[in-house]
Write a structure and sequence with these properties.
about 280 residues, alpha/beta, Protocatechuate 4,5-dioxygenase, Chain B, binds 3,4-dihydroxybenzoic acid, binds fe (iii) ion
Amino acid sequence: MAKITAGITTSHIPAIGVAMDNNLEETPYFKPFFDGYPPVRQWLHDNPPDVVVLFYNDHGLEFFLDRKPTFAMGVADKYENADEGWGIATIPPITGETELSWHIATHLIENDFDMTVCQEMKVDHGCTVPMSVMWPDKNYSHIKVIPVAINCERHPMPNPSRCLALGKEFGKAIESFDQDLNVVLFGTGGMSHQLDGQRAGFISREFDLWCMDKLITDPQAIADLSISEIIQRGGAQGVEINMWLAMRGAMHGNLKLLHSNYYAPISNTATGLQLIEHSH
Ligand code: DHB
Ligand code: FE
């Protein structure tokens, strides 16, 4: 059977992709951020996933404000990236996993999560920056990725509790798949940030550290917050914590936090990296 071996949270800030393209990882501005990654890359090297289920938000490349699925997932065998105007180099196509994708889509829809199921889907920095930061040589083509997009851009947005529950169904779907696959979950985006409006630049270290702790020990405490409470405490784009909740919801076995790094700010955003091992 397929098993979930870990969940990893990571930032997706475009500036990280630009920094990697320009070899700026060792500069004082970026070093404390990139210094968090080698242990996670090493773990992925030592425990290679067959499949990554990647929870992210599409910022407008595939789903613009005029048509925005609340929950969408890919069932394609390949996902292309495109220029979004951030100055990040376009990355090689990401490989998909059609059989497990269709199994998950069927399970979710039969269990009341009405996903938008995408046979074609461009993936933006929310998906590609996490792939690049974990595999900086872009040698990820052997890893099959299932991208799952959660709306964090246009109101109304799904409740945090709904995202945790979505993750639970992902967990059941993955663990009922009849092939011996190692599956790693990525929860991308976050942490506190607000990119525009009167509070542009808002960051709350206190809220972020609370989320990093509760994600492991009591995710329901985060899930009990409303979208407007998340915005008050974590900024308008702090809603990206919903992807972390979806990831966490899929993990119901024993958890072990193997690595953690909090650093802020990069660009306008706080970053949180966590490697959470999962076993039964
Ligand atoms: C930034 C953060 C994001 O989450 C994003 O999607 C784009 C930009 C930033 O801080 O620059
Ligand atoms: Fe974002």
